[in-house]
Design goal:
By secondary structure, the chain is α/β, with parallel strands linked by helices. The protein has a single domain, classed as TIM Barrel. It has 9 helices and 8 strands. Bound molecules: pyridoxal-5'-phosphate. Pyridoxal-5'-phosphate binds next to strand 8 and helix 9.
Length: 229
């Protein structure tokens, strides 16, 4: 338990430090998304007891089990994993946020299948480092995709998400995050949108992400330790 507390304090300290160094305005704070994939509900509960409310999951069946068993009704669940199109209904039913929308078809289905009372918060995943194997919209195709996605009635388009190519170099890390931020600003202008979310930065590069304007950082290992399976 003290381990949990230490890691939680340490991450929050890193966030605060990075935020102060960035000179960012306090009006756009950073939300810590605790990535609990492959970790037990007990561990989730331990962070919940320390005040954590946003949790991210990548594997749908594992996530649904935990969501259904959890008694913490004010947890905000974020889906951040790869999406198969036949799973969109369950995702729309169980999550308040979906960060990994990477195809128009997925957006269409999520909107059609969402039955909640407000709208489903989504981020569009961008393949910012243009890696052939990685999912996400390319920077070239995102504008035409947006034309359709912004018409979908049950989605609240919050912003962009990316998992850049890993690097140990702060400058390299910052470059990809900078590109994502510029892309969002450009799309906001072009389509007169108010996207307000940059979901970027993980355990190893959260400082660079925050310095480039991340509003949600997705942290797994640095909070939970190595994944259990
Ligand atoms: C697993 C995962 C994370 C967390 O990564 P860590 O390096 O463990 O912090 C963040 N984002 C996505 C999309 C993930 O799948």
């Amino acid at each position: 338990m003290s381990n949990t507390r230490n890691r939680f304090d340490h991450i929050n300290h890193r966030i605060q430090q990075a935020f102060n160094n960035s000179g960012r305005s306090l009006s756009k704070p950073v939300t810590l998304l605790a990535v609990s994939k492959h970790h037990s509900l007990e561990k989730i509960q331990a962070f919940y007891d320390l005040g954590q409310r946003d949790f991210g999951e990548s594997y749908l069946q594992e996530a649904i089990k935990k969501i259904n068993q959890s008694t913490c009704s004010d947890i905000i669940w974020h889906f951040i994993g790869p999406i198969q199109s036949n799973k969109t209904k369950e995702i729309a039913q169980h999550f308040q946020w979906v960060h990994s929308v990477d195809r128009i078809k997925i957006a269409r289905r999520l909107s059609a299948q969402y039955t909640g009372t407000s709208k489903l918060n989504i981020c569009l995943q961008i393949n910012i480092s243009q890696e052939p194997q990685k999912s996400g919209f390319s920077t070239n195709e995102i504008a035409s995709a947006l034309e359709e996605i912004i018409q979908l009635p049950n989605l609240n388009l919050r912003g962009l998400m990316s998992i850049p190519k890993p690097s140990n170099d702060f400058t390299q890390q910052s470059l990809a995050f900078h590109q994502l931020r510029e892309l969002m600003e450009q799309l906001n202008k072009q389509f007169a949108l108010n996207m307000d979310t940059l979901s970027m930065g993980m355990s190893g590069d959260l400082e660079a992400a925050i310095s480039e304007g991340a509003t949600i950082i997705r942290v797994g290992t640095a909070l939970f330790g190595p994944r259990e399976s």
